[in-house]
Write a structure and sequence with these properties.
The two termini are 76 Å apart. The chain is an alpha+beta fold and 429 residues long. It has ten helices and twelve strands. The chain is rod-shaped and about 155 Å long. It has three domains: 88 residues, no CATH class; 98 residues, no CATH class; 150 residues, Histidine kinase-like ATPase, C-terminal domain (Heat Shock Protein 90), CATH 3.30.565.10. The chain has a five-stranded mixed sheet with strand order 6-8-9-11-10, with helices on one face. A four-stranded antiparallel sheet has the order 1-4-3-2.
Amino acid sequence: MKRLFISLYLLLSLSFLGIGWTLDSLWQKQVEDNDHLDSPLIAFALLLAQQPKPDRQALLDNISKQFLYPLQLFEQNEIALSGDVVLSNNQLVTTTTADKSHELQFIAVGDQVLMAGPIDVDPRGQLRSLFTIFFYLSLAFVALIWVWPLSKDLKTLKKATQNFGEAKWNTRIELNASSQVAPLANTFNDMAQHISDLIENQKHLSNAVSHEIRTPLARLKFALALLPQYCQPKNDEQRTQEFLEEMQLDIKEMETLLQELLTYASLEVQQEPTFEKCELISMTEELTARLTPLSDKPINFHYSMDNMLIMAEPPLVERAIQNLITNAQRYTQTSIELYLSYDERLVFLSVVNDGEAIPEEDQEKLFEPFYRSKSQHIGNKGHGLGLAIIKRIMHRHKGRVNLVSDEDNTSFTLIWPRDHLFVKPKMDV
């Protein structure tokens, strides 16, 4: 992470420096051309060259008295310039003194040389250099202000991923909302929460399955040990048949458990749901007609509209309603009441039974897989997956399931949002 910070910082700083230096050089070359400032001196040198050589010094002295500008005439052999510099009568040659504080300008005047100076070097040139350095330092500081928090946040992300890789499933990232990588941190937190939930569910399911399947498996092993005794020719055929039917029930119990597990696990897979129009009234009526013969308690369906269409996955919706009805059949005392209604935002389908109240400490946990209330409910032979499956089905449909239980009634309510809902009011006849 330190290498990333250094490389990013150097990249930004050197980029700023290179671009700024290039633009400054172009500006000096193209814009800050000093030829127009040198033109008067070149013109004066040309005018001076037209004068006779003996009169040049007198004219120069006369001008120097009127203008305090240092001008001197020398013979060409008196001037020694470094390098291969050649003087001409239409171009100035500028040099600086040894102390770099003054500059001299030379131009040819016939066979003589006109020297202007020494002239103080423009102090704004040095000041400009200082401003240029300050400008680049400011850019480097701005880059540091931007890069340092980013590097710090990335280091936090790296540490969090390392902790998560070490099976620390509760690892979460906390960053300021203004952080550049805050969306990435939020995505990581969602992923971490989902993975930790999956792992927790897997542990819970594994423990629960081993416990739930142990009982019918033990009965089967015991029955297999006794099977030779029941298969003797002298044994009662009816007792033998009953014994075999009990074995079949144990096998069916395990098959049911496995089927529930597969359903529960399939709902965990994060696939995009395929919604279609689902008519709740006809679906619920068909379910009540099919499930009523399974119990001696009547099922009454109450609604006040001709039809109610929602966008959903019909098999899953049917499974959720069926689970609630069969669950109510285990505990109701007199009848099961179904109520279908809606308001401006939601649609409700309630399944109400008048059985024993569910303790408050159990109401939130009932929707966890394999959890069953500690209260002694008659006919409680389920595996504790039905309500967990309903919860996942409703979550898949962006809805929820609510539970209200008191001494009079226990009500489970399926709630869907009305975003994809079409309701046709019931017509009076």
